[in-house]
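Box 3.1 — From sequence to structure: Protein-disulfide isomerase-like protein
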Amino acid sequence: MKPVTILAIAVLVFAVLAAVIVYSNLISRSQPQAFSTTSAGGLPLPNWAITFGDPKAPITLIELFDLHCPYCAMAHEQLDPLYRELLKTGKLRLVFLDLIVHPEAAPAHQYLHCAYNQLGNKTYDLITQLYKIFLSDGAQKQLEILQGYRCTNTPSKSDFDSAVKELLGALVQKGVAIRQLGTPTFIIIKNGTINVVVGADVARVISLISQ
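Predicted structure (token representation):
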């Protein structure tokens, strides 16, 4: 075989290997790791879940939410002062898990995860602001604000759905069945006991996390 031919083959092999490595890196960046198990009740949560507060807090509240859900917005407005108090005193771990009831809300949720990657704990204030804007000015204004945090590495609608499915499956295994799922849904873990509140029953949520 001629030296030129050997060199050409070597260059081709190198190019193919380089392309495979680049493609693998792109795939790993665009697909968030699926699940990691929390220490609170052993419930599975994705590592990209929007989380606030001390992981070792005595109360964990997982809120299934939709940014276009008016009941979520109204419930958050009422729960916000208590959330802030419990977060500040280290008594609450608050997890927001995306339950997309309104399909058009998916881009807003993806941008919210971009914001979380950039803002960290300050994202809580953003969520509060976004709900107020949704109630006063609508979904489009909400989306315009979120687009300022645009990024490429964000969970997909499929990731959101899979996370909720995994969580519900784990609840069933623990003997906690949710007959009718909706937004908001609050899953409260305290003293080893799991309670679920479906809907904007704010009084019930307050009683469970204030006791």
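Summary of the box: Residues 17 and 23 are 10 Å apart (CA to CA).
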